[in-house]
Amino acid sequence: MALKARALYNFQSENKEEISIQENEELVIFSENSLDGWLQGQNSRGETGLFPASYVEILRSRSGSNYTDYSGSPAGSPGHDSFYTTPPNPGISYQGSFEDDDDDDWDDWDDACTVVEEPRSAPGTNGHPSPSLQYPAAYGHHQHAGYHAKPALERQDSMSSSKRGSVVGRNLNRFSCFVRSGVEAFILGDVPLMSKIAEAYCIEMGSKGPQWRANPHPFICSVEDPTKQTKFKGIKSYISYKLTPSNINSPVYRRYKHFDWLYNRLLHKFTVISVPHLPEKQATGRFEEDFIEKRKRRLILWMDHMTSHPVLSQYEGFQHFLCCRDEKQWKLGKRRAEKDEMVGASFLLTIQIPTEHQDLQDVEDRVDAFKAFSKKMDDSVLQLTNVASELVRKHVGGFRKEFQKLGNAFQAISHSFHMDPPYSSDALNNAISHTGKTYETVGEMFAEQPKNDLFLMLDTLSLYQGLLSNFPDIIHLQKGAFAKVKESQRMSDEGRMDQEEADGIRKRCRVVGFALQAEMNHFHERRVADFKRMMQSYLKQQIVFYQRVSQQLEKTLRMYDNL
């Protein structure tokens, strides 16, 4: 029976079995039973195919639930798994490789599955869950067993006052990402204060404004040797990747679904940070060589961005993901990450900001400039992606065919010259025939060239498309915070709010503003380095390529000398 559904996220198809869907697009689902985390249905353009189950919500009548949770399917159980996969070489014993036990069944998931972290009616900022799941005090119901809600009217930052009721109003749009991320609750002082905060992330003033304090123990991590492995006597197959952090120089083996688990933890925790997107999933062809190589290249870029980020690289869950090689310790660390209280807006409590004064209007102007820049860059990245993708298609198809046609035409000329032996010149005929073969070779060189240059360019552009797509929601958080500051100051001026309470709202807005500026600064630093490397690599590979083409032509040209 066909069901109506709505897309929660954008999904771009990568093969003929899949279809692309857009956020908020209405869909038709042929069956709500997912197959290895994928649903089959039809989009609004009439295209039929597969898309990730966790990217959609099924719309039901008011008498039923409005959301179908796929966490019980192979695509979605966040609570069980071992990160330990069998090393590629069975002859070598690795401490970081373990078999699953009865209470740890993540390996029953398919490699292409998505982790569904929390049930939600709509996605939050960067994929964060609804704040109603994080801050029960602000929404009047209890969700966390470890948190005891204060009375509904008690504000954590406010003193007892006769003006208690004159607080800043909440947004009427409860689906705004400013609300869903929990940042509104943070700005208004409704995020539960922890008695002890074990982690701290510092922002300091640099030459170009606020910046994250550098990781005191920087490191890099390689992603190598994607290897197909099997279990259950060959019934189930998967790809494992060898990760070797430079700070311990000891490898661990992870599957894509393990990256997916980590990615969801990152989205859940870091509200105001643009977390790099993982390479997209694919329903079919996951064991094809080209797809495995593409995924490896993009995981390398993803890992490079993770290790270079001053905050993400220090995250305990990330360090545990990279370094833990003991099964029991792994399970403890995994559950600790899943029970982390300093997530979403509570993460903002861990940020320590400079004492320097910043005029809020100057900050808003700076953010507006970055917003315009990021929109323009997003458009230009998409344009270059389309042009490069079309060039790849021409290299593999059109250019090769045209050079093959030219080569065949030269071969035909050579054959025709053999038709009248008395006037035939074997040296000339052979030279023309070799010219035809040379152009056929050049055509094959064109077909292979994208692997050396354009693919690497497209990988970088794909990463930045993901990073840029995060910023509209993050900027919206800051805009919402500024609006609360202005409203609170107006109420204070009118005598409807204590100045101390208004100052508290302004102070917490400074945290959001400093964090966004630090993230903007880090983005620009990475952008300069990444695009410099991308362009240098592309031009170097182009030079090498055309030198090889030139060498082929020069070699052929010499055959005409002294005829």
TrEMBL record:
Q: Please give an example of a GO cellular component term from this record.
A: plasma membrane
Gene3D superfamilies, A to Z: Arfaptin homology (AH) domain/BAR domain, Phox-like domain, SH3 Domains
Q: Could you say which residues bind a 1,2-diacyl-sn-glycero-3-phospho-(1D-myo-inositol-4,5-bisphosphate) here?
A: 255, 257, 295
**Keyword hit for RNA-binding:** no
As for subcellular location, the record says:
Cytoplasmic vesicle membrane
Keyword entries, A-Z: Cell cycle, Cell division, Cytoplasmic vesicle, Endocytosis, Membrane, Mitosis, Protein transport, SH3 domain, Transport
Q: How does it sit in the membrane?
A: Peripheral membrane protein
Q: Which GO terms describe its biological process?
A: cleavage furrow formation; endocytosis; endosomal transport; intracellular protein transport; mitotic cytokinesis; plasma membrane tubulation
Family matches, as Pfam families: BAR_3_WASP_bdg, PX, SH3_9
Q: Where is the SH3 domain?
A: 1-61
Residues annotated as domain PX: 219-329
Region (Disordered) location: 69-90
What would be an example GO MF term here? phosphatidylinositol binding
Q: Which domain of life is it from?
A: Eukaryota
Family designation: Belongs to the sorting nexin family.
Q: What is this protein called?
A: SNX33 protein
Which species is this record about?
Spizaetus tyrannus
Recorded name of the encoding gene = Snx33
